[in-house]
């Protein structure tokens, strides 16, 4: 047993720090005396040394050392061709014991991927002949191709993964996300479904994800619910998270939160999907719960985007946009495919007046999740903020035609129509259609109430809001009902509605403003100074706002550190 064998055994035993020190010393010896080790031994040392560096997360250094190993392998190949083998069996055994050149190339690609050098990673993996590509190489290639927008190549690679591993479910999701028909994907798994017992659910699973990626949320929900009710798959966390996400996409916040909470109870260490859950909780005004959730996820792992997004949502809904921007950028650094991180950063940029930068982030979110309507809503809000009504109308019409006439698409189109006096009647018709489909859809109720307020149809607005609140309790709806009641001089109930709104979201500034305005009207002697809406908004939390400029400057500095300017 020689020294190289000892190094190999230490590597196999996971003694990476020991391998790094010993291999470094041996390589120095080899450089000073080239005759000390054979070409194959030096190749092995370089690979073991690179593996140890990779384990220490020094990826640029590791990639360099792996490339040196590949150069050494070329020298080894040349010498083995030049010198005929005198001991055929021994030479063959030595060749088989050498680290795989294919595995070394995979490791280089892995380093490049972590370093965000996707083009270099693709170039390395493309250099491996198709017949020599293992399933994990094809899977990495497929993900890289999809990220680069090379959809045809991505489909080919995903299919190759399924050909070798027909139960590779993430590859199946990849194919469905690239618009490959569910029936075609299912046909690639049919043999294994029929040959292995208790896999009859897989066809329905594929169908559910085909509906998700086709934007058919209603049928996706029904299919996942039927799967989740099966005794063998009941309480599966992945299914519950998927169901929660589809409820979210369908605009059903109540059921989405319910399913996320159910999944969280089953798996307290759950990270996947918690960014969406945190966003919903923040949007509903439960900022204390969001803060606790973010802290808990940071304790589980700070190397995932989700806890950063959750903390960013807390900052965003606390109106600390610079901090939200920094946290969103940090999340994107950890996972450039995080749709929720892109939406968070886009929303922060929009609210800070940096609309063109926000548009870039919303477009990237749309590319990654073409069936998520909140990506389009963010972009439309940017267009409206910059008076681009024509662009907003074009986008809204495109969504309506592509995803069909459902409550969400009708409401999005109506929202744009409300911005133009010429299309007010069309907006009313669209909102009526949306509410006919889903009377409890909050966004449609809010927009219809806004329209009725403009038309001063206060009694009709009160009836609409009371009807919507019969089966749900929502801060915005209670606050709007309070506004309508003030308009008809029903001050006592208006005060009650503002109080309910603030109990649901203590940070709702508009409800607080409504109460303060009523109190001033009731006791004019106390109101020595009349404040407009902007002044009142700034008077809500004096302590926080005193430090807001310095805090914004602090986070702006960190934005520059992370290259966000």
From TrEMBL:
UniProt keyword list: TPR repeat
Ranges for the TPR repeats: 237-270, 339-372, 475-508
Cited Gene3D superfamilies: Tetratricopeptide repeat domain
Biased composition (Basic and acidic residues): 514-523
A Pfam cross-reference name: TPR_8
Coiled-coil stretches: none
UniProt cross-references to InterPro entries, sorted A to Z: TPR-like_helical_dom_sf, TPR_rpt
GO BP terms, alphabetized: cell division; positive regulation of mitotic metaphase/anaphase transition; protein ubiquitination
Ranges of biased composition (kind: Acidic residues): 529-549
GO cellular component, one term: anaphase-promoting complex
Region entry Disordered, spans: 514-565
PANTHER family given in the database record: ANAPHASE-PROMOTING COMPLEX SUBUNIT 7 (PTHR12558:SF36), CELL DIVISION CYCLE 16,23,27 (PTHR12558)
Protein name (Swiss-Prot/TrEMBL): Anaphase-promoting complex subunit 7
High-level lineage: Eukaryota, Metazoa, Chordata, Craniata, Vertebrata
């Amino acid at each position: 047993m020689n020294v190289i064998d000892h190094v190999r055994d230490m590597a196999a035993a996971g003694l990476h720090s020991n391998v790094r020190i010993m291999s470094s010393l041996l390589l120095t010896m080899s450089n000073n005396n080239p005759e000390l080790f054979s070409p194959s031994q030096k190749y092995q040392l370089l690979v073991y040394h690179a593996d140890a560096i990779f384990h220490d997360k020094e990826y640029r250094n590791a990639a360099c050392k792996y490339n040196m190993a590949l150069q050494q392998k070329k020298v080894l190949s040349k010498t083995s061709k030049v010198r005929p083998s005198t001991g055929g069996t021994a030479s063959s055994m030595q060749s088989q014991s050498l680290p795989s050149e294919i595995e070394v190339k995979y490791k280089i690609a892995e380093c490049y991927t972590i370093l965000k050098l996707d083009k270099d990673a693709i170039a390395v993996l493309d250099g491996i002949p198709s017949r020599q590509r293992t399933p994990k190489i094809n899977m990495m290639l497929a993900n890289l191709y999809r990220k680069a927008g090379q959809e045809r190549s991505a489909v080919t690679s995903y299919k190759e993964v399924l050909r070798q591993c027909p139960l590779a479910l993430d590859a199946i999701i990849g194919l469905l996300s690239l618009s490959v028909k569910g029936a075609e994907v299912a046909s690639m798994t049919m043999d294994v479904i029929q040959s292995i017992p208790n896999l009859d659910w897989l066809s329905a699973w594929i169908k559910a994800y085909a509906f998700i990626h086709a934007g058919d949320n209603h049928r996706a929900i029904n299919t996942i619910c039927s799967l989740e009710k099966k005794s063998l798959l009941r309480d599966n966390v992945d299914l519950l998270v998927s169901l929660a996400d589809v409820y979210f996409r369908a605009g059903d916040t109540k059921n989405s939160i319910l399913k996320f909470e159910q999944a969280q109870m089953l798996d307290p260490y759950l990270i996947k999907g918690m960014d969406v859950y945190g966003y919903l909780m923040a949007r509903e005004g439960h900022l204390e719960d969001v803060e606790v959730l973010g802290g808990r996820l940071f304790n589980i792992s700070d190397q995932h985007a989700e806890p950063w997004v959750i903390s960013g949502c807390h900052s965003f809904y606390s109106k600390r946009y610079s901090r939200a921007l920094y946290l969103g950028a940090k999340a994107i650094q950890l996972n450039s495919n995080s749709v929720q991180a892109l939406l968070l950063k886009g929303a922060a940029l929009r609210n800070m007046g940096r609309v063109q930068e926000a548009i870039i982030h919303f477009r990237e979110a749309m590319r990654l999740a073409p069936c998520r309507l909140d990506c389009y809503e963010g972009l439309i809000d940017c267009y409206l903020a910059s008076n681009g009504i024509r662009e907003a109308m074009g986008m809204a019409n495109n969504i309506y035609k592509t995803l069909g006439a459902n409550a969400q698409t009708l409401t999005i189109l109506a929202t744009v129509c409300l911005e133009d006096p010429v299309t007010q009647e069309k907006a009313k018709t669209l909102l009526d259609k949306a509410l006919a489909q889903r009377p409890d859809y909050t966004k449609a109720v809010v927009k219809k109430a806004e329209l009725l307020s403009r038309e001063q149809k206060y009694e009709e607005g009160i009836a609409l809001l009371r009807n919507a609140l019969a089966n749900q309790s929502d801060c915005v709806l209670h606050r709007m009902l309070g506004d309508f009641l003030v308009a008809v001089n029903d001050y006592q109930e208006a005060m009650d509605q503002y109080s309910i709104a603030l109990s649901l979201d203590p940070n709702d500034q508009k409800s607080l403003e409504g109460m303060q305005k009523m109190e001033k009207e009731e006791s004019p002697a106390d109101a020595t100074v009349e404040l407009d809406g902007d002044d009142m908004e700034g008077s809500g939390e004096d302590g926080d706002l005193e430090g807001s400029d310095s805090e914004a400057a602090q986070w702006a500095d960190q934005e520059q550190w992370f290259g966000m300017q």
